[in-house]
Amino acid sequence: MRTVYVAGVGSTTFGRHPDRSLRHLGWEACRDAIADAGIAPSALAAGYCGNALAPAIQGETSVGQNVFWEVGLAGLPVINVENACASGSTALHQGWMAVAGGFHDAVIVVGVEKAVMPKGMPLNVGAGEMETQLGDIFPGFFAMMAQRHALSFGTTREQMAKVAVKNRANGMLNPLVQFKKTVTVEEVLASPMIADPITLNSCCANADGAAAAILCDEATARRLGRAKVRIAASVLRSGDYDSERDLAIWDSEAKAARLAYALAGLGPEDLDLVELHDAFSICEIVHCEGLGLCKPGEGGRLLDEGATALGGRIPVNPSGGLLAKGHPIGASGVGQIAEIAWQLRGRAGPRQIAGARVGLAQMMGGAKERDARAIALHILVAD
User: Fold this and answer.
1) Which residues fall within 8 angstroms of residue 6, CB to CB, at 6 or more apart?
2) Domain range for residue 331?
């Protein structure tokens, strides 16, 4: 298996882009990634596109072919991926496998989404989705998780609120985020209740946006002469679907994390930063535990101690995460890779983590039997 490098990355701002199409958003991210890598488009042998909602919202399929054509890429094999929130991360995994397996020397990966519903457009949930009809939607699911975590470990609403406070503060240092306003613990707790104890400011917002990455083998990376960011591990798995599982602990994530660390030859103690799926404030707490950043039940304490803040022992979501950036579903996973690449190359500006050498990106997607449909982990290392 060959070593795979991230040669270049690009990202649009995340937020509301009512006047821009999927193709235009994807074009911008791909254009910037190609320029960042300093690679000729003709050297890209395949394209991988993550998108979740275009068939339902825009009525558009084969998004990757449309986006890559905008940057002059035609004739190459294009793979379109839908894997819920992990769509972009899954596309990245597919691109990594193609280069690692020796099938292609350089490929392009893009995640793109227009997730902000146009005004007046009805939400089509499908007549067969009984869970949705009964109210078992994501805010309710994570509210149950938050309540169980509080019952099992004493996690407080204030600790959950500190996730939003931290990530919104980090977002103030990132020009690509949707929300450029800090919040206090009191403001998070006082915002409208969505599903107890999840308040409005504890939830990420839908967003439009795109992010892209150029992946290549070592010889191509050497020829391009760019700072080397190596993908030390790429893991994709589904949930265990154990109906008896404890909602306060994500065993399937812990299994994926152990595999990723083993592939990378590293452990959680070696990480300098983590970008993870903070769709709701409780998510970050539980994911920190699942990734081994602390013991089960101690995720809230990380917030109290400032361990996950910029300058802390293990900064989590220095980009601002989904709580600040917003969540363009198909693009979010690739956006995490862009942030970590910038950090490892010392190009993250005022949010730069000094001496960052190892970063982990985590993304979950969908829900089935109280577990995730997709769990994607990537560990990146500065060589």
Assistant:
1) 213, 214, 215, 229, 230, 231, 337, 341, 380
2) 130-204+233-382
pLDDT in tens, the chain (383 residues): 899 999 999 999 999 999 999 999 999 999 999 999 999 999 999 999 999 999 988 899 999 999 999 999 999 999 999 999 999 999 999 999 999 999 999 999 999 999 987 766 655 444 334 344 434 478 888 999 999 999 999 999 999 999 999 999 999 999 999 999 999 999 999 999 999 999 999 999 999 999 999 999 999 999 999 778 999 999 999 988 887 778 888 899 999 999 999 999 999 999 999 999 999 999 999 999 999 999 999 999 999 999 999 999 999 999 999 999 999 999 999 999 999 999 999 999 999 999 999 999 999 988 887 788 999 999 999 99
Is 104 catalytic? The answer is: no
Per the residue annotation, which of 104, 287, 327, 378 is the catalytic one?
Answer: 327
Q: Are residues 237 and 227 part of one domain? A: no
Neighbours of 168 (CB within 10 A): 23
Residue 147: CATH number of its domain: 3.40.47.10
Q: Which of 85, 203, 283, 294 is catalytic?
A: 85
Instruction: Assess whether 327 carries a catalytic annotation.
Output: yes
225 and 328 assigned to the same domain: no
pTM across the whole model: 0.94
